[in-house]
Write a structure and sequence with these properties.
Number of helices: 5
Oligomer: single chain
CATH architecture: 3-Layer(aba) Sandwich
Structural class: alpha/beta
Number of strands: 4
Largest sheet: 4 strands, mixed
Helix content: 40-55%
Radius of gyration: 14 Å
CATH superfamily: Metalloproteases ("zincins"), catalytic domain
Distance between the termini: 29 Å
Number of domains: 1
Length: 151
């Protein structure tokens, strides 16, 4: 399993790259995912909005976009794009640390790769319940590594 974290036009949270990889590996194991490769791209609102427009014909900001590039749904060769701008705004809105909001978005992307979707109320509620459960566990397990100082 190959996991990469890249930063496109952003430099915040570089110091947490190793911890984010640990969180991803834990989450992948917890969800029993078969991952060949996973590329996480932390970026900004402008870039994610451009992807949202190009791939989904939606001219709106979003916090996370997930792609599984493998045609076999049981094997993941994926990409998760995350807007650090959205994560910072949402962390204020939900009164959580930016680090935990970024972990929530990593988890959200992995849940999409695991087959969860949030296109309707019923599925969205199921996904949110699982997401909250995983975020709580990550917060307990990785708290000291995630809260190492302000960037």
């Amino acid at each position: 399993m190959e996991i990469q974290i890249n930063y496109h036009d952003v430099t915040k949270y570089l110091h947490l790259k190793t911890t984010f990889i640990e969180v991803l590996k834990w989450n992948i194991n917890k969800l029993n995912l078969t991952v060949q490769s996973l590329n996480i791209i932390f970026t900004n609102d402008a870039y994610l909005k451009q992807l949202h427009q190009s791939f989904f014909d939606l001219d709106t900001k979003t916090d996370v976009i997930t792609f599984n590039l493998d045609e076999n749904p049981d094997v993941i060769d994926g990409e998760i794009y995350i807007s650090i701008d959205r994560a910072l705004d949402q962390s204020k809105e939900y009164s959580v640390s930016p680090e935990m909001e970024l972990c929530r978005l990593l988890i959200h992307g992995c849940l999409h790769l695991a087959g969860y979707d949030d296109k309707d109320e019923v599925n969205s509620a199921k996904m949110k319940e699982k997401e909250n459960e995983l975020v709580e566990e990550v917060n307990r397990m990785f708290y000291n590594k995630l809260h190492v100082g302000v960037n």
